[in-house]
Amino acid sequence: MDTRKARQRITFLLPPEGTDDDGFPRKKWTPYVTVWAELQTLKGKSFYEAASTNLENYRHFRIRYRNDLNDRMRVSWNDIDHELAAPIENTDGMNRYMDVRVKAVTNR
Q: What is the pTM of this model?
């Protein structure tokens, strides 16, 4: 990963937990941490395969390694919430970078 390509800001969100003051379950996701990310776009054959299967709402980000992220989180990018489409991967198991694949959430 070339860190100069990490031009996008993404925010990891914690899932709603507990209840509000009225005793109702919370529905709002809480911001946890904002990081720089590289948006990796689909090109060539991958682009056409994604288009044929309606994957236009899927995105692939690469970030620096962090040990405090988990698969229950969501990602916010450009004011759009995204759920994880796959587990967060430690790229090559080297604790240097992580691949985050997400899908846009239709309802907030």
A: 0.82
